[in-house]
Structure formats: C-alpha cells, structure tokens
Amino acid sequence: MNNDLQQENYDRRKFCQSLLGSIAFLLLPIQSRAAEKKNPNRVLVLGNGYIPSDHYWGMGIDISKCIGCGRCVDACKMENKVPREPFFFRTWVERYRIYEDDETQVDSPEGAINGFTTVPFGNHVIRSFFVPKLCNQCDNPPCVQVCPVGATFITEDGVILVDSDYCIGCRYCVQACPYGARFINPFTSTAEKCTFCYHRVAKGMAPACVEVCPTQARIFGEIRKKASPLVRFIRMNNIGVLKPNLNTEPKVYYADLDGEVR
Amino acid sequence: MKTFGNKFPQQLKRLAIVAVILLALLVFMRRILVPSDFGTFGHFRASAVEDIALQKIQYAGQVVCLECHEDIVGTKNAGYHKNVACEVCHGPAAAHTAGEDTVGLQIPTSRAHCLLCHEYLSSRPTGFPQIVSESHNPMKLCVSCHNPHDPRPSEAPKGCEACHATIARTKSLSHHVYVDCERCHTTPEQHKINPREFLPSKPKTREFCGGCHATETPETRGILKIDMNTHGQRYICWQCHYPHLPEG
Q: Does the structure show a pLDDT above 70 at A41?
C-alpha cells in the first residue's frame, strides 16, 4: 500500500516536470519572434531620410464640397502613368441620385475624367451628390491577407503598397477588395492601386488629387498627430467610412456620408 | 552506429538520401529566389518601399510656381480662385519647373474647360458658382469676360442697367451693344443718388453721330458710313433712327 502511494507521487512529479519543460520548449519560438519584432534598432529609413514609422496617413473627403469636376481623376492618371483607357482608375468620382421611390442611381461616366453632363432631372430626385472614391488604405486589408506571395503589404505609415516586381498578377487581391479599388495594369500585368502618391508623400508633398482639388474636398494628413488638419477635419465633421460592416477599418474618412453610399 | 543503421531497411535509407538532396535543393533555391531583404520588416520585400518612393513626380506643387510667377500667383491667391492650384488648369508642371522655360504648359481657353467646374449640375453643392452654358453667352469664350486668375461674377446690377433695363435690353440686340452708355450720355456721379436733379447729357447735334458714321472718319470696323452732306441735312439723326436700336 505504502509502496504504491510512493510510486504514484513519483509519477506526478515527473509528469509536472515534463509538462513544464515541454511548454517552455513550445513557447521558445514565439518568444524569439516577439524579441525579433520589438527590436528598436531595425527602423526602415528611405534614401531621402523619410521614416515611415514616424507617420500614419489618412485622407478626409468632404462630400459637400465635391463638385464632380474630375480633376483628381485626371491628375491621378497623369501623376501615376495610369493607362488612359476608361476602365483603369486609382481614383474616380461617382454621382449618386436618390429618388423618392427609394431607388438609387449611381453613375461615373469614364470615371468622371471629363466631368459629368447634365441628365434630365426628374421631379422625384430627393438628393444628389458626388462621391470621390479611391483605395481606402484599410487597417485590416483583405487584399494583403489574400496575396499568396507577399507582393502587397501595409507599410508602417499605414499605406498599402504593391510591389510590382514581386506581384505575379494572380488577381486574388482584385477579387478580395470590397471597394473595387484595384485593377491589373494591362502593360505590366501586375496589380495596381492608389498608393496615396507614396513617392510624393515620402518627399513631404500631398497626393496629386489633393494638390489639384479646386474646392479642397480632399484633405490629406496624419491621423495620430493632434495638430494635423485631418484630425481637425475628423473632429469637426460627422464622419463615415465605406462598408464599415466589413471591419476593414478604412483610413479614408468621408464627411456627411449618405447612408445610400456603398 | 552500426546497430542504428541496421534498424532501418535499405530502401528507406536510399529514400532518405533522395529526401536530403531535395531538402538541400529547396533550401538552395529558396536562398536564390527569395530576395535577401524579404521579411526584414514584414512579409514583403523591404526595398520595394524605396522603389515605389523613387517614382518620378509630375505635379510640382503651387509653392514652386510662386518662385517665378509671383505676380500672377499673388493675383490668383487674392481672388475667388485662391484654392485652385495652378496645375489644375495648366497641367502637370514638374518638367517645366525642372527644365526651366524649355517645356511649355497648356493654357486652356475653351469654354469646355471652365465648364468642367462651372456648368450647372443639380448634384453640385448649393452656392457653388454655376451657369447654364446654353444660355450664358454661348458664342463667347469665358476668358473674354472673366479673368481666370481673378474671376468675378459680372457686375450686377450694372450702373445704368439697374434702372434703365428696357433700354439696356434693347441695346443688347443692336449693333450698338459695345457702345457704352457713357459714350453718348455724360452722367454726373450724383445721378445715381438724385436722378431728377442731376440729369445725364444727351447728344445735341448731327455731328455727334457723324463722329463715327461720317465718311471722312478713319475708323471703319464695319461701321455704316454716310455722307453727312447729302443724307437728310434738314433732320437730326434721332428723328429717324432710334439710337438704342438703329436697325429698328
């Protein structure tokens, strides 16, 4: 009896020891990964001294200021050498017309690169407005999740970029984007999208669409810095984002966004 | 060692050699194919950020325009177009600012260009200046009346038109449309405040009309010329011709 009890004690001790040992062993790689990530010495610095981790970019769009002139669409194509064909857009403008009978009409003739034309305006339209659209630079980007090769990624300043040298043109990201912001460039056969004009931002300039907007309907700036005009814009306006239910956490903020906008 | 080796059948040992070679090949190919900086800052090629940031700039930004065109940017920034960047109309200017004067920029003068923003669209925000181009001087260029660097709404109500609208409307249909009221009627400034006390002048003689319409006057520009000596000497011009609509 006594002997049996001792045997039992011995087994339990051994069991506990080996359990602790194996847990420690299993946690080892996680520990080393975490140590690797937290290493403060590894900060990406670009050639011109721009440090992405010092910034966090976002864009505000004031719907009530947009006049639908399409200058942003034109400037974007000029700046980023986007093909002129009317189906490749990094940014485009949509016109919403909401009728009394709950019907909503959306049009964007050639992405509004040549502006809009008057349409016979029925008596039943309740409200009508323009919505400029672009890549929402999601904090939780579906396109990055699906990329099989790591060609699209989120930088430390919150911008989603596409590495066109590494992209294999599989179109997964085009399918995954809920905002239709991506397309395949017909010349390079790689995915392309709005980069917030990363080459301009890295030089301290505003994106081309923000630069040319004649009514200042687009505001570009830092999200996390208190003194940023964008932070003020977000504070002063009734802000909405596109498709919030998808939990993509977009960083393009719309002021006075109508519920009908999808 | 011998006993360890004998534990496995020979087929398995041979297979193991193949497996080791394949594994070595995999490691070797991965080393070649995967860029060295892949995964340094995340699941991507770290140098891609630099590559993207090196893209050439097309739009130079308004600050650069100011360096040379101080006067015209100053005019623009004082007017209603103060928020409209130069490159909205003149196009991307990075090549122009880098190559100095060798690369010219576009100077759009067509009505279509202005109408991109100013044509009436029901979707545009209330209060934004818009026109219906069909009825707003359809034959004229916008720039013939409005200075794009300092645009203003036309001066309404106009000095004379405010009270004498009928005459102004009649005159706008006639060949005298470009003749200012002041050309024939010298108007004292107080006329606007006290019209009955301070009346504008009226032409008194035939020679006043002859100033433009006599054969000997040098100015032509399609002005109808008459010989003042033979054409109805006994009458003053406006006994037969209504000056605000001479065709009538």
A: no
Does any domain span residue A207?
yes
Is the ipTM higher than 0.90? The answer is no
Tell me, what's the pLDDT at B152?
Answer: 82
The domain total for chain A is 2
What is the domain extent for residue A77?
A: 44-89+134-262
Does position A242 have pLDDT exceeding 60, yes or no?
A: yes
Do residues A150 and A210 both lie within one domain?
yes
C-alpha distance from A36 to closest chain B C-alpha (Å) = 10
Domain limits for position B2: 1-33
DSSP letters, chain B, are -HHHHHTS-HHHHHHHHHHHHHHHHHHHHHHHHS-TTBTSSSSSBHHHHHHHHTSPP----HHHHHHH-HHHHHHHHHSTTTTS-HHHHH---HHHHHSTTSS------SHHHHHHHHB--TTSPTTS--B-TTTS-TTS-GGGTS-TTS-----SS-TTTTT-HHHHHHHHTSGGGGS-HHHH----GGGGTSTTTSPPP---SHHHHHHHHBTT-S--TT---B-TTTS-TTS-GGGTS-TTSTT-
Q: Is there a single domain that holds both residue A53 and residue A166?
A: yes
Residues A75 and A14 occupy one common structural domain: no
The model's confidence at residue A122, banded by pLDDT at 50, 70 and 90, is: low
Q: What is the pLDDT of residue A9?
A: 61
CB within 8 Å of chain B, chain A residues 20-59: 42, 44, 46-48, 50, 52
pLDDT at residue A68, as a whole number: 94
